[in-house]
Amino acid sequence: MLSFLFRFFGLFVLAWLFQRIMSFFLGASKNKRTKGNAASPSSHMVKDPVCGMYMDARLAVRLDKKSEEFYFCSEECKQKYLSDPAASQSAGSAASR
To answer: What is the DSSP annotation of 12-63?
Structure first.
């Protein structure tokens, strides 16, 4: 009787494992994994206007100014931009060359 229970449990585990593997390769699980990434509109690369560094927009420090969005790699770059925006933009364009 105990041998029968172990076989039954083993078959149950194998069937569950087979179902999980098939759903992974056929895309049922894939839709769940990528749903959060596809829904995020700001998951793109942006350029820091001060130092010229590119980074993921989700990780950047944001500044909304005059209905424009600016993205910075750090709080220091943001403060440099706020102190002198014209000089920061020319330094950022020089850094990207």
So the answer is: HHHHHHHHHHHHHHHTHHHHHHHHHHHH-TT-SEEE-TTT--EEETTTSEEE
Query: CB neighbours of 33 closer than 8 A, spacing ≥ 6?
Result: none
The residue written with tokens 């895309």 in the block is 27
Lowest-pLDDT choice from 13-17, 32-36, 50-54: 32-36
What is the rounded CA–CA span in Å between residue 48 and residue 91? 11
> What's 67's DSSP letter?
T
The range of the structural domain enclosing residue 28 comes to 2-39
Q: Give yes or no for a contact between 73 and 55, defined as CB atoms under 8 angstroms apart.
A: yes
Instruction: Please tell me the total count of domains within the chain.
Output: 2
The pLDDT tens digits of the residues spanning 45-87 come to 999 999 999 999 888 999 988 888 889 999 999 999 988 877 6
- The pTM of the full predicted model, rounded to 2 decimals, is 0.48
